[in-house]
Amino acid sequence: MSPSGDKIFVTNYDRDKVITLARDGTVLCTFTDPDLKLPSGIHVTALGKVLVCGGSSNTILQLDGERKKKLATLATRSDGLNKPQ
To answer: Each residue of 31-45: pLDDT tens digit?
Structure first.
């Protein structure tokens, strides 16, 4: 959930997506990226940044919770990741 409580972030494991929902369940947007495969774990920081783990891509991405874009790839397999959750 976003810090303001107005958005819910969920992963769609099978479709390699992060979905942003309004509190009433309305889909606000979806995020996909070639560096995100089989997303599982997700966390929202106090500043609204979304951290998501790609289990198959062995990545942790930082997303902008407002504009739905990738800000950074924080870690990869070369950093020692193996199926992060």
So the answer is: 999 999 999 999 999
Asked, for residue 2, whether it belongs to a domain, the answer is no
CATH code, domain with 72: 2.40.10.500
Is residue 23, in this structure, part of any structural domain at all?
yes
Please check whether residue 36 is in contact with residue 18, taking contact to mean a CB–CB distance below 8 angstroms: yes
Residue 80's H or E segment, with its range, is none
Q: What 8-state DSSP symbol labels residue 9?
A: E
Number of domains in the chain: 1
Task: Report the alpha-carbon distance of residue 21 to residue 6 in Å, rounded.
Answer: 9
| Cα 48 to Cα 27: distance, rounded to the nearest angstrom | 18
What contacts 25, CB < 8 A, 6 or more positions away?
Answer: none
